[in-house]
Design a protein that fits this description.
Number of helices: 6
Helix content: 40-55%
Radius of gyration: 21 Å
Largest sheet: 4 strands, antiparallel
Number of strands: 7
Structural class: alpha+beta
Strand order of the largest sheet: 1-2-3-4
Distance between the termini: 21 Å
Strand content: 15-25%
């Protein structure tokens, strides 16, 4: 799916992740400097190893996971795939629009989407119906800050990507 030129992908802005990377590198480097300057002092050993472990290993692991999960939506000829949620065929999409919170998608049927959701997801038919009453008639709402573009532009892009019925 990702190889096709007709695939529309919404990726969260990654500038915050780059900022986090810089902070982790700086604190890891400080931990290394503390260890190099006085490796025999107990406090320096503890602080240096803690900085390298927390910011180097922990920060690196966190950054990789967040970078991989920054793709929010992927739309192709078959429908919309929501990262960490499920797939919605175009036939099940009733309406795409903008809410006060962001991009909204209203579904005709929940069956396919719920059957493709991974185990343990928070989406159920009841939760989607409750979201519809809360979100101006939309079952799924994505904040504009997650889409990397204004919600109106994202809605227009999805509508253009939707195959003609």
């Amino acid at each position: 799916m990702a190889d096709s030129p007709d695939v529309l992908t919404f990726v969260s802005p990654r500038r915050n992740l780059i900022f986090l990377l810089v902070i982790c590198v700086l604190f890891t480097a400080m931990g290394v400097v503390v260890l190099v300057l006085a490796p025999t002092k107990t406090l320096n050993l503890i602080v240096g190893v803690a900085a390298i472990g927390f910011f180097g290993a922990g920060g690196g692991y966190s950054l990789v996971r967040q970078w991989r999960r920054s793709t929010v939506l992927v739309a192709d000829d078959e429908g919309i795939r929501i990262t960490d949620a499920g797939r919605i065929p175009w036939a099940d999409v009733d309406r795409i629009g903008v809410t006060s919170d962001g991009l909204g998608i209203r579904l005709r049927r929940y069956d396919t989407f719920l059957s493709t959701c991974p185990a343990g997801t928070e989406h159920t038919a009841t939760s989607l119906r409750a979201a519809r009453t809360r979100n101006s008639g939309y079952d799924l709402v994505f904040a504009a800050r997650l889409l990397g573009r204004p919600a109106g532009e994202a809605a227009r892009d999805l509508q253009r990507r939707r195959p003609a019925a």
